[in-house]
Specification:
Layout lengths: L26 H47 L1 H31 L4 H21 L6 H29 L14
Helix pairs in contact: 1-2, 2-3, 3-4
Length: 179
């Protein structure tokens, strides 16, 4: 029986089959969102695993390089190269951390990206100062200004993001930034 007959069944043309309002009308939306989130999780997990393998390979290679080249190059140059590679590993680990946060919350966290940028600039400053090349003052000033901008952004996130982060239960949301 249909509603036209005075029964309780759905009217013809209403229901999930044709996309009109009904109990299952959001099926495609929910399914596509779920499928997209799973695909994003798979790709993000593959990227994270690749970055971890790359970071481990760079770390092992840099330790081996340090011990094999410290006699030929000298300890200072070998240590500078080693520090540069260790900071690169730190950048990769921070990116993996950002990917993990993104996987957990399905939201993009701004703070880890700022930390990655800060570490990258500090790495560049340390490598430039430790190398034998003369660094122009304007370039050094640009690097220091970049550090100031990144630190300012971290402070702004802590100050202004802190109000949004606090939840009624008292736990913190690790995803500060874009939701």
């Amino acid at each position: 029986m249909t509603q036209a007959d005075g029964g309780e069944g759905p009217a013809e043309g209403a229901g999930p089959e044709n996309g009109r309002d009904g109990p299952g009308s959001n099926w495609w939306s929910r399914s596509s969102t779920t499928l997209t989130e799973h695909a994003q999780d798979i790709v993000s997990s593959a990227v994270a695993a690749t970055l971890i393998v790359l970071a481990a390979a760079i770390l092992v290679a840099s330790v081996v390089d340090f011990f094999t080249t410290s006699h030929a190059k000298g300890l200072t140059l070998a240590a500078t190269d080693f520090l540069d590679k260790v900071l690169l590993v730190l950048i990769l680990v921070e990116i993996v951390h950002t990917v993990v946060l993104s996987l957990r919350a399905h939201a993009l966290a701004a703070q880890p990206f700022i930390v990655v940028g800060l570490v990258a600039v500090i790495r560049k400053i340390l490598f430039a100062l430790g190398s034998q090349q003369k660094l122009p003052t304007s370039t050094l000033a640009l690097y220091i200004a970049m550090v100031a901008v990144f630190v300012g952004a971290l402070v702004a996130i802590e100050v202004f993001g802190g109000r949004r982060r606090a939840s009624p239960r008292g736990d913190d949301d690790p995803t500060i930034g874009l939701h």
